[in-house]
Design brief:
The chain is of the alpha/beta class and about 350 residues long. β5, α9 (about 185-195) and β6 (about 205-210) form a beta-alpha-beta unit. The protein has 2 domains: about 5-210, Rossmann fold; about 225-344, Tyrosyl-Transfer RNA Synthetase. It is about 50% helix and about 10% strand. The termini are far apart. The strands form 2 sheets. The chain has a 6-stranded mixed β-sheet, with helices on both faces. The protein has a two-stranded antiparallel sheet with strand order 7-8. The structure holds one RNA strand of 77 nucleotides.
Length: about 350
RNA sequence: CCGCCCUUAGCUCAGACUGGUAGAGCAGCCGACUGUAGAUCGGCUUGUCCCCCGUUCAAAUCGGGGAGGGCGGACCA
């Protein structure tokens, strides 16, 4: 595959590349590798799906992909996951990620899955981590992790170890590209700074955009209405999107449009399908959009009203997550064991 | 090891001194207005008052014990 096409696949729909030059050098060479880590904490949602879609692009561009299920990190971050649930949640995460990769049109068996506990407790890793801890100031670690680690009145030491371990993961997994949501930026900038002193290379960083919350502002893990979960029923998806903040003509902070832009259209594009919004005759009848840009233009101009957009968006989003929902519904024990207080 | 402080609604807290049916703001939910949502009005809901024992007719409130959290002191061979 020619390097230009490779670069296009790797960088489409991303929020930032650090740096473009380094990436081009990388994809110009043999079998580059990328990794993304997920800490198995709360239930997986549609925001995860936007990052997963890129994994399919990596595979198409012949970039090797490793997914780290960062079980220790899930506990280290203010004990978001209780220690005894790490294994169950890791299983749920891995299975759900596989389903998403497949839904994005790629083969999950081409991805290497690794758990944190498989290598983060080795002697070499531990020694290197302690050396990093000796060299890194508290404020530097705090700053790196502030967008990722839960911020509380009484921060734990674990939240400071977190970015150091994540940096060491990049080296240990041998990843050329560190990929994640743009919230991970602080941590990987730290990685680029300190890894050279610890026998590693600074990773090329690729950041996915974060989706806005449906209730306006940021998506919140604790606000169920602000996000679509991957196992939400079609009725739940419809209800959440119907209740979404969606001012006519505005693109800013508009979660509904972002869902379409980063999730629905890329997948429709892959399938060669169009977006059809049903609309009563009095408002102009049904409309069809070939690209997200066309839809956004119609929305911005006021030609497409939110009340017509929402039901269509809900149907497409529901359709896109359907294969994942089915896999989860077929294996109820995954969620039951991972979140016993909710599904037990 | 010692001392001091904190724990009340989903969140931030008032109420405790002086015992008498547990409150506010925010959030949430429901209506009105918008061809969606938001904003704005109008209305409504929410509780092991950290746990146990005791005093009392009556304990969030007083006494004792315990748990969790915070702060400080001491020790620094």
């Amino acid at each position: 595959m020619d390097p230009a096409e490779r670069t296009r696949l790797v960088t489409r729909h991303v929020a930032e590349v650090v740096t473009e030059e380094e990436l081009e050098t990388l994809v110009g060479g043999e079998s580059p590798s990328a990794y993304i880590g997920y800490a198995p904490t709360g239930e997986m949602h549609i925001g995860h799906f936007t990052t997963i879609r890129k994994l399919a692009d990596f595979l198409r561009a012949d970039v090797e992909v490793t997914v780290l299920v960062a079980d220790l990190h899930a506990h280290l971050d203010d004990e978001k996951s209780p220690f005894d649930l790490l294994d169950a949640r890791s299983q749920y995460y891995e299975e759900t990620i596989r389903a998403m990769v497949e839904a994005a049109g790629a083969d999950p068996d081409r991805i290497e899955f690794v758990r944190g506990t498989e290598f983060e407790l080795s002697e070499d890793y531990s020694v290197e981590l302690l050396r990093m801890a000796a060299e890194t100031t508290i404020s530097r670690a705090q700053r790196a992790a502030s967008e990722v680690v839960r911020q509380t009145e009484n921060p734990k030491l674990g939240g400071l170890l977190y970015p150091l371990m994540q940096s060491l993961d990049v080296k240990t997994l041998g990843a050329d590209i560190a990929y994640g949501g743009i919230d991970q930026r602080g941590i990987y900038m730290l990685s680029r700074e300190i890894l050279e002193d610890h026998g590693g290379d600074p990773p090329v960083c690729l950041f996915a955009p974060l989706l806005s919350g449906l209730t306006g502002g940021k998506m919140s893990a604790s606000d169920e209405q602000s996000k679509v979960n991957l196992n939400d029923s079609p009725a739940e998806v419809e209800e959440k999107i119907d209740g979404a903040y969606c001012p006519a003509g505005e693109v800013e902070d508009n979660g509904v449009l972002e869902y379409l832009r980063y999730l629905v259209f890329p997948i429709l594009d892959e399938r060669g399908e169009q977006f059809v919004a049903e609309r009563p005759d009095e408002y102009g009848g049904n409309v069809t959009f070939e690209t997200y840009e066309d839809l956004e233009t119609a929305f911005t101009s006021g030609e497409l009203h939110p009340a017509d957009l929402k039901p269509a968006a809900a149907a497409y989003v529901s359709d896109v997550i359907d294969p994942i929902r089915q896999r989860l519904d077929a294996q109820p024990e995954l969620l039951r064991e991972a979140y016993p207080e909710k599904y037990g």
